[in-house]
């Protein structure tokens, strides 16, 4: 079944709903209902209101919210223009709706947005020990670049339970 999804850019008014949503996808008990949880790797929140506000105000940034026909927020994805690349981060799908094509639809919307802005490639970072997530992105056409990035030390993005590294992946558009 292909879900029907409408994507709209988030505004400052959406921050409280998005903070709750993103944290429920990545951390805590609710996140464990889906396969993309990070609760076993990190303590604390995935995002807070101040950090999300900063992200939305960054130059060339947008957070697309995916809503059902009934208006339910079921997914979101953060995008930030970086020269000829579009950085994609914080792809979030409601845990109880994972595996139903919403993530793929959000990726398609992200790719379309990037192409509209003249980007020639997408860029993402994924925690190196998230093998199932890396495999999913690779099935979507993303390739490992060999580049790594240290995991952020700001506790607003979570407190690692073990040393973590981010792998950089890219996809030509």
Automatic annotation (TrEMBL):
Keywords assigned: Acyltransferase, Transferase
Pfam families named among the record's database cross-references: Acetyltransf_1 (PF00583)
CDD domains in the cross-refs: NAT_SF
Molecular functions per Gene Ontology: acyltransferase activity, transferring groups other than amino-acyl groups
Domain N-acetyltransferase positions: 5-173
Name under which the protein is recorded: GNAT family N-acetyltransferase
Coiled-coil portions: none
InterPro entries, sorted: Acyl_CoA_acyltransferase, Bact_Acetyltransf, GNAT_dom
Organism the protein comes from: Hymenobacter aquaticus
